[in-house]
Design brief:
mainly alpha, Helix Hairpins, 7 helices
């Protein structure tokens, strides 16, 4: 595939475009925007989780309160224990039952207190997250504008570079260009590199059989890193 010159020229122009992309990506505006954007995208799901948790805690609290009220009613039945005894009731039986109910009530109240603490912690977390959301909304708006301004300052140059890439791409076979673009997405650069002695730029030995195919301006994919290799 004698397309060495076209690939080298394509990579040269692409390197200029990549430099601009990296500058934008490394900017504070992009980093702050990306942070806020990530938060904004995950916020609805996190709010939904917190709402569900709050509903579960509220339902549990109501259940515990009803149980406590029921136990309270059962305990109230022993308010007339003297009359029960006079009627021939077993004092020890009544006392034992009453004590068991009191113990259950104390344990239940302890559960309610712990649950109230959990509810308070959940409410605190919700308020904290809500404040964070407001701050991130402000950050998103502010740094999106700054990011857009930065991107806009390179727009003319980027458009010119992309137009040049499109022009060169017409001279490169589609399958080769697709492989190049795939490596570009994998953040491998350079994608086209000269043979260094008997080795690829990745450090792997380049088989003699493949070296022989480099004659006449051909390029060959490295079997290890899949870069395009040529002979200078």
């Amino acid at each position: 595939m004698p397309i060495l010159n076209e690939l080298l020229e394509y990579q040269k122009v692409d390197a200029q475009l990549r430099k601009i992309e990296q500058a934008v990506s490394a900017s504070e505006a992009q980093k702050k925007f990306a942070q806020a954007n990530k938060f904004m995208k995950s916020a609805p799901e996190r709010f939904e989780v917190q709402d569900k948790r709050a509903a579960e805690l509220t339902a549990l609290r109501e259940s515990l309160i009803r149980r406590a009220e029921d136990i309270g009613k059962q305990i109230a039945e022993y308010s007339d224990v003297d009359e029960m005894v006079e009627g021939g009731g077993d004092v020890s039986f009544y006392k034992k039952n009453a004590q068991a109910l009191l113990d259950r009530l104390r344990a239940l109240k302890s559960e309610i207190q712990k649950l109230n603490s959990d509810i308070a912690a959940t409410v605190e977390e919700y308020d904290r997250f809500k404040k964070q959301g407001a701050a991130m909304q402000k950050q998103y708006k502010e740094y999106k504008a700054k990011r857009d301004e930065l991107v806009g300052s390179h727009k003319e140059e980027v458009n010119a570079l992309r137009a040049r890439l499109a022009e060169i791409a017409k001279k490169i076979p589609e399958d080769i260009l697709n492989k190049y673009q795939q490596k570009r997405k994998e953040n491998i650069f350079p994608i086209i590199a000269p043979l260094n002695g008997n080795m690829c730029i990745c450090g792997m030995d380049f088989p003699l059989a493949l070296q022989e195919k480099l004659a006449g301006g051909n390029v060959v994919e490295c079997e290890h890193c899949r870069r395009f290799v040529y002979k200078a």
